[in-house]
Amino acid sequence: MNDMRTLERIVNSEAIKISARNVQVHYGTTQAIKDLNVDILDKTVTAFIGPSGCGKSTFLRCLNRMNDTIESCRVTGQIMMDGANIYDPRIDPVQLRARVGMVFQKPNPFPKSIYDNVAYGPKIHGLTRNKAELDEIVETSIRKAALWNEVKDRLQSPGTGLSGGQQQRLCIARAIATGPEVLLMDEPCSALDPIATAQVEELIDELRAQFSVVIVTHSMQQAARVSQRTAFFHLGSLVETGETGQIFTSPKDPRTEAYITGRIG
Amino acid sequence: MTDATSGGLSAAAQPKSSLLQPSRLMKKRNAAETRFKAYGIAAIVLSLATLGFMLVTIFSDGVSSFFQAKLSFPVELTARTLDPKGNRDRADMVKITTLGYNKVLAVAFEKELAARGIAIEGQSAKDVVEMISKDAAGSLRATVLANPSLVGSTLDATVLATGRIDGYLKGRVTMQTAERDSNVTPAQLQLADKLREAGMLTSSFNWGFLTMPDASDQRPEAAGLGVAILGSAYMMLLVLVTCVPVGVAASIYLEEFAPKNFWTDAIEVNISNLAAVPSIVFGILGLAIFINFAGMPNSSTLVGALVLSLMTLPTIIIATRSAIKAVPPSIRDAALGIGASKMQSVFHHVLPLAMPGILTGTILGLASALGETAPLLLIGMVAFVDNYPAAPMEGFLDPATALPVQVYGWAQRADPAFIERSSGAIIVLLVFLVAMNVLAILLRRRFERRW
User: Fold this and answer.
1) ipTM summary value
2) A97: closest chain B residue by CA
3) B365-369 contacts: CB < 8 A, separation 24 or more?
4) What are the extents of the domains in chain B?
């Protein structure tokens, strides 16, 4: 842990954006998550860490109901976002996903132009009235994703032609173009080299000003670098959650300590 | 630890055998690989040879059907025979049958022979006139009726020669076969030689083969593929219109929306099985449902197309589903992740990416429908159809035939001229199939996008 400046980080928001109570997730007959309770703060980066298969990605996908696309997946319990249970039958997951954006592990731009990639979300949600407004959203989103200088001259060239790191930033631009309140990131840097990783991490830190960011990561250094709060998952349950500095320096649970010192996982 | 490593190293440092000397096992493995490659090459050579043999046979038999011997001579359209009332009224002239036109042709032909001084050695006038196709009178009558003012003038007519004379020009009929043939005499062939020298008998490209309808047994020279090509085209159009929307919609539903349960599994198995059902079974089904139950007209392209659609649907569904399956799930996740509905993710992202596969599958399905014969026999499309179907839409209810059925029909006729035409029809069919495959490849190239 070379990056102990995390100690100095302050969590500058106490507003709870998402709170999960008694969440259970089953894939068929196997239970992936049991009795999970966690609060995710607004305008904060929350990192989910834990060994492979501990359920952190599964839980992340519960937050925007992407798990609905998996046939055998069953979610019970309560996940409240702004006072509404997102698993309420009256809630349309499509509408929810416009407010809870997601960035995936592997960069997955559409095989369309860079412009169309970013413009797609605003278009389908009817966020703009004319071309000028759309252009503006596209530009601000790409700027926020720290990609503008690299692509401003070739917005009409295919998004798939960018490098891996650029593609991932394009996906982030695409996710923030719909104006989400929460941004979920599922190991966004696992397919990137260290330089691209650094760019994306810097970006995450900037995005914190506008959104609540939840990031799943395998790299504890990354969690320490970018997050204010960290949640440690182990074997489908949440072991410990708290401020990142506290988790990495004085974990309360012996399992957390074992994991961050490299003895399990 | 160091002890163990050094011990292992020293043991490994002793080479067991030279790398330059392949071991016995290695030799065996290499031999197996060489054998396998040889089998592969042999299989490819064998199939190419078979294909080559097939094409050579078809082309050597069939290309001649694209050429046709024709007789040209001036015909005086005598008003006395063709328009006895002399008023050039079509209604009256219709009463003159082909018999009258036969007479006119015979007179004109004999007159021209005499004028050119071509001797008719030991042949009756009847034999000489029989060198003209029985189709000639009919086509002359059609020309005159279309333009009654021609009567009284002299027309430079070019009429078909009989199949035997045509065969003589192509080398199919010889003096030896003519001696044993009741339809042609060696004397007629000798006369044909003279006519060729005089320039009256020529062989030219046979447009009629592509445009004319089928003809009776007595006049193979007049038989053409017109009705068959039109019938096949109508059916392909209808198959396309019925199959593609249904097939693609069914595939999208099954692949993207349907829950995975017992029923969808059963449907999937049944679709795969339907693709393997012998095509003649679909013919019986079509006969029972469309003709006997629904009362649609026999031999019509509509019924043919519906039967072919039933047959093609499973192929299209299977091809479309595999094309949709091949679209990476990350694209669907990406679309859903930014709040696209299921339908939007399918129509905006999955379908465009699956398009090349869908198009290829559809066109190959159509190509197999184009070549299908058996089910069409059962719904009566093998009947002798002499009239072109009308223009769409009512034309879809008119009787017609199809290219492969025409091949089948001609191959059954006794006259060797029909066998030649059968091969010619196969060439036409192959040209259509190759064209469709090329189209499939072009569309695939055009729509292919990387992701």
Assistant:
1) 0.86
2) B339
3) B365/B243, B365/B312, B365/B315, B365/B316, B365/B319, B366/B236, B366/B239, B366/B240, B366/B243, B366/B312, B366/B436, B367/B433, B367/B436, B367/B437, B367/B440, B368/B312, B368/B315, B369/B235, B369/B236, B369/B239, B369/B308, B369/B309, B369/B311, B369/B312
4) 63-203, 226-447
